[in-house]
Amino acid sequence: MSIIHRFPGGIHPHEGKGGKAATAGLPIVEAPLPSRVTIPLQQHIGAPCKPLVQKGDYVKVGQMIGEPVGFVSAAVHASVSGTVVDVMPCIVANGTQVNAVVIDNDHTDTWEDLTPVQNPEAITAQELSELCRKLGIVGMGGATFPTSVKLAVPADKKVDTLLINGAECEPYLSADHRLMAEKAEGIVCGVRLVKKALNIPTVKIGVELNKPDAIDALKACIKADDGIEVIGLKVNYPQGGEKQLTYALTGRKVRTGGLPLDIGVIVMNVGTCYAIYRAVYEGRPVIDRVVTVGGTVAKPANYLARIGSPVEWLLDTSEGMLPETRMLIYGGPMMGMAISRHDIPVTKGCSGVLALDKLAALAEEGACIRCGRCVEACPMLLSPTMLDKYMRKGMYEEAEQAGALNCMECGACTWSCPARRNLTQSCRVLKKVITQRKKEEAALKGGK
Ligand code: SF4
Ligand code: SF4
Q: Which residues approach ligand 1 with their CB closer than 6 A?
């Protein structure tokens, strides 16, 4: 029997009206195809793809339209068939501009010929890694780290444990929950492929205990000799953080600034495993994903949405936002991003689009009352109140010494603060400024 370790800090955010309960029981439905998609050529951490098409080209669903450039990259594919209107910059959820392929849908849904792997049982780690790169698989939990890189384990590293992340600990989101409940066989198949190709002896799938149907579905697909264990995890945000999950399931701690790989662990999201299964058995690239549309919308849903669909399209499919909506979030309420434009495209890392009312949206900040709740909540053992102070006073060196760069931007401190101080945002700013200053210092040293 597995021992579950409790990571420090964490919170149990209330889910409020329109929380998980509103969508957790809703089966995945295919969203209708939009008349136009905007597909960013960078939907992953790493180098943007090189466009393979130009204005006027006809493309089929699944056709590669962006070629990965550099080691850390993943291909991008057309999600509808039709004509390329343009290759041009578009605004993505974080407010930056990214080059994108805009396609007018011909509504014939004509697919490129797909080529499944001939002998999936015999696929090697290198072949699997190359396939994931070619078929555009990235961390589907939101991290968007190219899976090809995760599978290319350096020769000096030894992996003995594969952890599958089915925690989905953010309020409101139920995309992974539904995928596990409905596509458990595919997920487990994907897990088996990775386990075998990388020769990893131990596999644990961690799922928060508030998803009993997902746990049962996964368990039902696992054979006695699979060497795969499904483990129910305490409901505690951010249970799905890589470091928190690693500690919870193995008791091993990832050092500051390190990766689970440093301690023999690879962590993958359930959605990524499902994408691997489809890539191998169907030759299918990532052209869609499950997106929870929830909160203050008329009809909350879990959509299988084509990549590049505008957020507005999904909101309209859900019959629009209710009048009390005050904020639109791309992702979950804790780690997602507030967006003001409705034409932002759904990308591979988008697990939710949430409309929030004024109770769920952040209220005005008050003065710190030194209650210490943010310190208790921080899973990285930081003092968010102190970091907030350093940010406001421009004390960047002190902030760095206090560990600002270790902040995982989980939002637990902001959520727990009775004064509604936006502590996470302060940490984001600190990380940006400190990293920039380090770069400038390095450039100065290099120039000497
Ligand atoms: S956002 Fe950063 S400082 Fe706040 S609780 Fe999470 S890790 Fe700690
Ligand atoms: S939780 Fe808010 S009010 Fe309490 S110490 Fe932290 S910043 Fe101050």
A: 377-380, 382, 384, 407-413, 423-424, 427
**Number of domains observed in the structure of the chain:** 3
Ligand of minimum distance to the alpha carbon of 370: 2
Measured by CA distance, the residue closest to atom 1 of ligand 1 is 409
Cβ-contact 381, 320 below 8 angstroms: no
Structure tokens at 409: 């931007």
Domain stop point among 322, 357, 392 = 357
Q: Which of 181, 162, 189, 204 is nearest to 277 (CA)?
A: 189
Residue whose CA lies nearest to ligand 1 atom number 3: 384
Q: Burial letters for 422-440: b for 16+ Cβ neighbours within 10 Å, e otherwise? A: bbbebbebbbebbeeeeee
Element (H, E) at 66: strand 64-67
Tell me the CA–centroid distance for residue 11 and ligand 2, in Å: 14
User: pLDDT digit of tens for each residue in the chain (448 aa)?
Assistant: 566 788 888 888 766 545 677 899 999 999 999 999 999 999 999 999 999 999 999 999 999 999 999 999 999 999 999 999 999 999 999 889 999 999 999 999 999 999 999 999 999 999 999 999 999 999 999 889 999 999 999 999 999 999 999 999 999 999 999 999 999 999 999 999 999 999 999 999 999 999 999 999 999 999 999 999 999 999 999 999 999 999 999 999 998 878 999 999 999 999 999 999 999 999 999 999 999 999 999 999 999 999 999 999 999 999 999 999 989 999 998 888 889 999 999 999 999 999 988 665 556 788 999 999 999 999 999 999 999 999 999 999 999 999 999 999 999 999 899 998 989 999 999 999 999 999 998 888 876 5
Q: Tell me: do 305 and 334 sit in the same domain.
A: yes
Q: How many helices (H) and strands (E) does the chain have?
A: 14, 17
Lookup: tokens for 315: 């909101």
CA of 133 to the centre of ligand 2 (A): 44
Nearest CA to ligand 1 atom 6: 410
Q: Is residue 19 part of a domain?
A: no
Q: Provide the domain limits for residue 40.
A: 28-106+285-357
If you measure from the C-alpha of residue 208 to the centroid of ligand 1, how many angstroms do you get, rounded to a whole number?
Answer: 21
Q: Looking at residue 350, which CATH number applies to its domain? A: 3.10.20.600
Q: Which residue has the tokens 């791309």?
A: 330
pTM of the model: 0.90
Instruction: Name the residue with the closest Cα to ligand 2, atom 4.
Output: 371
Q: Are residues 193 and 268 in the same domain?
A: yes
Same domain, 59 and 126: no
